[in-house]
Amino acid sequence: MARETPIRLEFTTSAPDVDHLPPSVSEVAFAGRSNVGKSSLINAVANRKDLAQVSRTPGRTRLLNVFTLGEQPVGSDGAARVVDLPGYGYANVPKHVRATWGPMIENYLLDREPLRMVLVLVDGEVGPTALDLGMLDWVRHSGIPHSVIATKHDKVRSAQRSKRKAEVASRCELEPRDVLWVSAAKGVNIDQLRSRMRSWLLD
Ligand code: GDP
C-alpha cells in the first residue's frame, strides 16, 4: 500500500456553537472523552507536534476547534475541515457547564450539514467507558455517520491485542473489522486513517 502523506491541517478558529462555524464543503469531527488520545491523534494524522494543543489552551477546551485542510475537495473551491469537539467527562467540571456542553456537541452533530463522519474515539488500553458507550448509542440512534477508532494500540501487549480488539468491538456492538485501532505514539494505522479521512473529506 502506498504511504499516505500527512494531512496538512492549519488551525482556523474556535466557535462557541455550530452557528458560529465558518462554511465548509466537508467535515470530519473527532469526539472522545478527555485523555482518550484525541489531540495526539490529530497531531499524528497531520504529522505535527503541537497542532491540537490549541484545543486545550485556556478558554478553548469547551469550544469547537476548527482546522482547515491544505487540500480541497474534488471539483470544489470550498474548504474541507476537521473539527475537534470538546472532550467529554472532565471530572471537575461544574454541573452548569456540563449542562451546556452536551447540547453544544449534540447540536453540532445534528445540525452540521457538511459533516461526513464523526470519529468516536475509545481508549484501546482501558476499553470503552460508559461515557463512550453513551456517545456511541446516541450517534447511532441519531443516524449520524460514525466510525469507532480505538487509540493507544502500543499500550497493549501484542499477545493480547486480538482478544482486546474483539472485546472493544463487542462492547461497541460491532465486528472487530469495524474498529480501527491506532497508535499515535508508534504510528500504527495512521496511514489507514489518513486514507479514510481523505476519502470522506475530498472525494
Ligand atoms: P486528549 O485529552 O484526548 O486530547 O488526549 P491526549 O492526546 O492529550 O493524550 C492523553 C494521554 O495519552 C497523554 O499522556 C498522551 O501522551 C497519551 N497518549 C495518546 N495517544 C497515545 C498513544 O498512541 N500511545 C501511548 N502510549 N500514549 C498515548
Please explain how this structure is put together.
With 203 residues, this protein is an alpha/beta fold. It has a single domain (9-202), classed as Rossmann fold. It has helices at 38-46, 95-111, 130-142, 161-171, 190-202; strands at 9-15, 26-31, 64-69, 80-84, 115-123, 146-151, 179-181. The mean pLDDT is 93.
Q: Please trace the helix and strand order, writing H or E for each element.
A: EEHEEHEHEHEH
Radius of gyration: 16 Å
Helix content: 25-40%
N→C terminal distance: 19 Å
Give the domain tally.
1
Q: What is the CATH architecture annotation?
A: 3-Layer(aba) Sandwich
Please identify the oligomeric state. single chain
Strand portion: 15-25%
Summarize the entry for a quick read.
The chain is α/β, with parallel strands linked by helices. The protein is 31% helix and 21% strand.
Features:
single chain, 203 residues, alpha/beta, Rossmann fold, 7-stranded mixed β-sheet, 7 strands, 21% strand, globular, binds guanosine-5'-diphosphate
Q: How does the SSE layout of this entry go?
A:
Blueprint: E1 9-15, E2 26-31, H1 38-46, E3 64-69, E4 80-84, H2 95-111, E5 115-123, H3 130-142, E6 146-151, H4 161-171, E7 179-181, H5 190-202
Parallel strand pairs: 2-4, 2-5, 5-6, 6-7
Antiparallel strand pairs: 1-3, 3-4
The structure holds guanosine-5'-diphosphate.
